[in-house]
């Protein structure tokens, strides 16, 4: 059985043509069917002494005073130092076709020196779009994503207690103006532009309708003629095509994550026959100073005599090993595993094979 290097993950990034069929809706974005990002600035109350320090976060005091004044409480000239409030940034995404009165999830993140938002409640916070208009209002109890405990001599933090979510915590107050039903042509934007994939989308749509209703403009765009589909509306046209099965043709890629030692190899990656020699050279320098004392009852001085030991070790390594030409992912993985090296060394080998021109794929290093 083929041995897989521990700590290295080889994932089939692309399946074979027989099993790679994907729904059209998972390959493209439909023109106009998109979300909108919302942003707000608010106040969280009810924290158990884990809020902002007013001396380090004066903006928290300002927003708290503004909220109290809107509620009819006069705090002009007053100084208060509560530890149960925190200033936060509230973010959300307004889904396409959201209607007034609907609810969406929001994310709450502390911007001051609060240590935890656990148990806090977000006070009514307007959420603005890129045009400055208010599209939703958020309020509710926060579900923090972590926990922290602190004592006099130690502190333990698990997860991220300074950020949390409020499920369905915002109510939509304004709809995005967009006449989707009036579109005569709909663009299908490929998430990963490719001429072959775009051509297959065009062919699949035209074959389903039995006539020319779709046209490929470039590697990332296919245009659907709604009138030619004879559908009652653009929504009916998209309903018919969104579940069509398409076999995407993606580029051969090798993705390397140097931090975790993870390697992801796509199914279309190929390696030409190449010979690899891998070994390690270790240089060790150790300082062991020695203290020399004078003889008793003499006028000598105590001195420190430096002592350095230098050692060079060269590991045996793999020698000169041949990696045969791989015509499939299994053969490529088997050839790399034959080197019998650690994950970190495998990353260097892949980089060197790519530099030699033997790796027929795009190498992405993160």
Automatic annotation (TrEMBL):
GO cellular component, as recorded: bacterial-type flagellum basal body, distal rod, P ring; outer membrane-bounded periplasmic space
Q: Which residues cross the membrane?
A: none
Q: Would the keyword Transferase be found if you checked this record's keyword annotation?
A: no
| Pfam families referenced in this protein's UniProt entry, alphabetically | FlgI
In which compartments does the protein localize? Bacterial flagellum basal body
Q: Which GO terms describe its biological process?
A: bacterial-type flagellum-dependent cell motility
- Domain of life of the source: Bacteria
Q: Does the keyword Signal apply?
A: yes
User: Which GO molecular function entries does the Swiss-Prot or TrEMBL record give?
Assistant: structural molecule activity
Q: Which UniProt keywords apply?
A: Bacterial flagellum, Cell projection, Cilium, Flagellum, Periplasm, Signal
Where does the signal peptide begin and end?
A: 1-20
Indicate where this protein is primarily found.
Answer: other
What's the stated role of this polypeptide?
Assembles around the rod to form the L-ring and probably protects the motor/basal body from shearing forces during rotation.
State the family it belongs to: Belongs to the FlgI family.
* PANTHER family, A to Z: FLAGELLAR P-RING PERIPLASMIC PROTEIN FLGI (PTHR30381), FLAGELLAR P-RING PROTEIN (PTHR30381:SF0)
Assembly and binders? The basal body constitutes a major portion of the flagellar organelle and consists of four rings (L,P,S, and M) mounted on a central rod.
This chain belongs to the protein called Flagellar P-ring protein
Q: Lineage of the native species?
A: Bacteria, Pseudomonadati, Pseudomonadota, Alphaproteobacteria, Rhodobacterales
**Encoding gene per record:** flgI
């Amino acid at each position: 059985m083929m041995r897989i290097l521990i700590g290295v993950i080889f994932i089939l990034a692309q399946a074979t043509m027989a099993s790679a069929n994907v729904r059209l809706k998972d390959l493209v974005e439909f023109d106009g069917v998109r979300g909108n990002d919302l942003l707000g600035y608010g106040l969280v109350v009810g924290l158990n002494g884990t809020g902002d320090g007013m001396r380090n976060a004066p903006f928290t005091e300002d927003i708290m005073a503004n909220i109290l004044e809107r509620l009819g409480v006069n705090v002009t000239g007053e100084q208060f130092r509560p530890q149960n409030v925190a200033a936060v940034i509230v973010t959300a995404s307004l889904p396409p076709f959201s209607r007034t009165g609907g609810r969406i999830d929001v994310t709450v993140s502390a911007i001051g020196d609060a240590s935890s938002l656990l148990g806090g409640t977000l006070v009514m916070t307007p959420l603005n779009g890129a045009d400055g208009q208010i599209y939703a209002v958020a309020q509710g109890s926060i579900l923090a994503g972590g926990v922290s405990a602190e004592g006099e001599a130690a502190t333990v933090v698990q997860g991220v207690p300074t950020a949390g979510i409020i499920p369905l915590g915002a109510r939509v107050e304004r709809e995005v103006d967009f006449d989707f039903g009036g579109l005569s042509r709909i663009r299908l934007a490929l998430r990963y532009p490719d001429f072959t994939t775009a051509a297959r989308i065009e062919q699949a749509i035209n074959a389903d309708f039995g006539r020319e209703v779709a046209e490929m403009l470039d590697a990332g765009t296919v245009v659907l003629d709604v009138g030619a589909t004879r559908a009652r509306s653009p929504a009916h046209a998209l309903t018919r095509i969104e579940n069509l099965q398409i076999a995407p043709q993606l580029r051969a890629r090798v993705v390397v994550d140097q931090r975790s030692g993870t390697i992801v190899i796509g199914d279309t990656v190929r390696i030409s026959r190449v010979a690899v020699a891998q070994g390690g050279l270790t240089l060790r320098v150790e300082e062991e100073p020695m203290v020399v004392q004078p003889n008793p009852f003499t006028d000598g001085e105590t001195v420190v005599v430096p002592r350095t030991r230098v050692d060079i070790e060269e590991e045996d390594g793999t020698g000169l090993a041949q990696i045969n030409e791989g015509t499939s992912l299994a053969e490529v993985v088997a050839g790399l595993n034959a080197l019998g090296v650690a994950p970190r060394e495998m990353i260097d080998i892949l980089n060197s094979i790519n530099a030699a021109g033997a790796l027929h794929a795009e190498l992405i290093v993160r």
